């Protein structure tokens, strides 16, 4: 018996297969095009389903005894579909500029803090509901034909099984879901003038949608008894796959985006979360919630530095037989003294300021590419320290970070984070915690594991623990006192 996790991403989907003990076996990936114009950002939902069929066929013919497939997806992006689940238009991405006016209209009808008290989200046009309002107003021909409104997880689940259900965490990314009652908010649908009957049934993470349709089984080589499991928003799955189940630990997702995901044992103080632009999301464990503290440029900033500044260093690294990242990290132990504001793609939490720009402060004629590279690493972590300070009043009190993603492979960066944040960090062996989390919940659903703790014992592998150096922490905090004033100093200039 095998289990698998299907992750629907913005530009591609991946199916990863594990055996019944949680051991990794194989994976398949298929990309699909995204269209980004100045006025619209879209992805072809039919292309997503074809990509899903492709990876399922590849893995299904190789492992026909897959008993369950868990489905996770990125958030907000939606598609209106007919009674058979066929898309009526290209899916509107979360970055699509349409819906901004409708979002303002919503907040005129209902105060932003009231919306946040219901949904856990500070109103923003990235969330689905205002874009659906735009569709109804500007494409009534499409809206009036629709029988379903899907996000990508429930779109795929319906296509595979015929069951319209969506997990709580992904439902919350619509800005129309009540995170306390765990139901669609009738009040928000009323003021948005959107029909709530279009929505899929909200269900807990790990709920089976039933078995795959017979024609899907025939096409993919999978058994007709293969179950499809609704899992979660991809960031929530990553928290599960990192083995973080209570408020004593948090996840450090060190990928293209840098994201710290703490767990709350109850509903956090929503006033604090609203002030810091933090989304509150139902977790996979009943009664618990997570939030996302993130920077748009984590690993992306490091890659920018390599691509833009380190052409000579790439050649030198190749001669030494090491990666350019290892070469640039070097063996320096002290803070660089430089300040890098990592807003190269705008500012995420706690500012949510798309107009903010990046900055490098403190350059001299003696500054090297290595200095700038390490300063970029520092800037990303300083930004997370800003977030941790902002979250203190919300009841946050974790004493360990579990790190995953490509950045967790860097021993220098992991030690730097431990020293700067003054907290132990456990680097995990897997770079793809989201897939692991999906498989863990799938394994529970089909009977491979008893509970999350049992699944984690089999599937969450720890590589190394980095403990903070008190002396280094003091040195970094001295620089941080200057960094704390950087955003306010730079913003009026850009």
TrEMBL record:
Top-level taxon of the source organism: Bacteria
Any coiled-coil regions, as ranges: none
Keywords for the protein's UniProt record, in alphabetical order: Kinase, Transferase
UniProt key word Metal-binding: no
Pfam families linked to this entry: FGGY_C (PF02782), FGGY_N (PF00370)
Domain named Carbohydrate kinase FGGY C-terminal: residues: 284-445
GO MF: kinase activity; phosphotransferase activity, alcohol group as acceptor
Residues annotated as domain Carbohydrate kinase FGGY N-terminal: 4-241
Gene Ontology BP term (one): carbohydrate metabolic process
Family designation: Belongs to the FGGY kinase family.
Name used for this protein in its record: Xylulokinase
Source species of the chain: Faecalicatena orotica
